[in-house]
Amino acid sequence: MKSILIVDDEEKIRDVIASYLHSEGFQTKEAANGKQAVEMILHFPIDLIILDLMLPDLSGEEVCQQVHQISPVPILMLTAKAAEEDRITGLAIGADDYVVKPFSPREVVARVKVILRRSGNDLLADRISFQNGDLIIDAVKRKVFKKEKDANLTPVEYKLLLVLARHPGRSFAREELIEKVFGYDYPGEMRTIDQHIKNLRHKIEADPSCPVYILTVYGFGYRFGGDRR
């Protein structure tokens, strides 16, 4: 049974989300602020975090950073800000997806299921090295290493890299990447994939402005340019 951590300073919101998750067979834990959330991650097995961006103690960015130093657990962000740039900011700080308040609890549960489904599927079954060991994908450990250091990818970044690296040189349209990484039922925007690519480049490229691994196919999408050696 998957365990979901709900982080929100409003008890009513936590109660409503927990009720819907319980009805779908999930276990839940709750935290009213960012510090409690980090403590939960340290002491309990958590499969996904539902995180309110506006908390009374830590910012959403601080919580994401601290959580991802401990665990690659996926994060679904709750935000009261509906502007596109605010949503893009949420993805940039390490969230895997977002829901804008006010939201439907059914939508939250649906997003949780999609994230858990996509984060649990590996596309490679071994340890693969690129550019003479500069980049290593270890699918057994579900980790990616850049110059022998853990790149600390989020589950979405990890899945996106696997999709591309499985077919070096093949160009993927943005729509195809969204289907493969997020699923056919993903209700989000096309620009979401561009933000995740940007985040991924900052973690695995020596110079994100001149990438070696994740190459842009202008007017179409992206392809993987690393040499498997």
Automatic annotation (TrEMBL):
Residue ranges of every copy of the Response regulatory domain listed in the record: 3-116
Subcellular location(s) per record: Cytoplasm
Alphabetized UniProt keyword annotations: DNA-binding, Phosphoprotein, Transcription, Transcription regulation, Two-component regulatory system
Gene Ontology terms: biological process: regulation of DNA-templated transcription
Modified residues (4-aspartylphosphate): 52
Any one Gene Ontology molecular-function term assigned to this protein's record: transcription cis-regulatory region binding
A single Gene Ontology CC term: cytosol
Residues annotated to bind DNA: 127-226
Domain OmpR/PhoB-type intervals: 127-226
Keyword check for DNA-binding: yes
Stretches assigned to coiled coil: none
The protein's name in its UniProt record: Response regulator transcription factor
Species in which this protein is naturally found: Thermoactinomyces mirandus
Lineage: Bacteria, Bacillati, Bacillota, Bacilli, Bacillales
